[in-house]
Amino acid sequence: MRRASLSQFLIERQRSGRINADLRLLIETIARACKAISTRVNKGPLGGGHGNAGTANVQGELQKNLDLMSNEILLEANEWGGNLAALVSEEMEDVKPTPTHYPRGEYLLLFDPLDGSSNIDVNISVGTIFSVLRCPQGPDGQMRVPDEKCFLQPGREQVAAGFAVYGPTTQLVITVGDGAYGFTLDRETYTFVLTQEQIRIAEDTAEFAINASNMRRWEPPVKRYIDECLAGSDGPRGKDFNMRWVASMVADVFRVLSRGGIFLYPRDSKNKEGRLRLMYEANPMAFIVEQAGGAATDGATRILDIQPQKLHQRIAVVLGSKNEVKRVTSYHK
Ligand code: AFP
Question: Does residue 303 share a domain with residue 214?
């Protein structure tokens, strides 16, 4: 059976009017950058990506060489295409407008170039997460000069989102608002091939993902939910649960998309706002999870409805199988 390529998938959506040529080019450019990052990741210590760069990012987190390499790959790939007004990266404090010697487009790109950095040196899956918004127009109908305020749009305004997982295979999951689709990198032809059509997350699950070492810090609703999962068939849930925690959001979310589950990174007494970033982790993943029939909240509020206040703000995340997310929400009420 011949499988569609990413290019064919995007051309079909351009032909149907779902996306325009600029958005198609943007997604293809990001996919190409993800292939280059995948090659670097797969070289491991032989590619110079391991180890610390000796610098810290805006979050004050130590940057790995591969964080900086991945960021550079995405910056270079996206500066000359003419479809971006500006971009934001987890690894850079400020908005980066498209250089004036290149044409500016209507889209805003946000990304975490390498999610799961703590897993790089120990050969556990890492990934790239991206989100696409439209650049607001000024009163004269012209595009505004892209500044932080242009980016502070709720996640429901996203026109596209996706993530790559650099694991045993390299996977790319994307949505342009008409479902969530999974592509596998065919290393012989070096093309992304459609392998998960219209992903659907099971509405129920018996698998949860959380960093249990934070248990003493959780708020009561989260503590109650996890305790009930741990009580299993002897407790109120009447069934046993399994637990997974990769500590790379891309890997945990890919598993939830593929076989159901609930992923939680809640607020706690240490991470008072939560740990994950709203603009380029929670929002794109929430868009994809909802497109796959799942749900995504901060524990109580739909993530895609949250009005951002700061570019790099953190947020609590509860996402995955709809009925489990609903249960956590009911415990927060
Ligand atoms: P790093 O990129 O700093 O490793 O953080 C990864 C992440 O943002 C997300 O991908 C994981 O789900 C989460 O943090 C893991 O956090 P813990 O290390 O506290 O479990």
Answer: yes
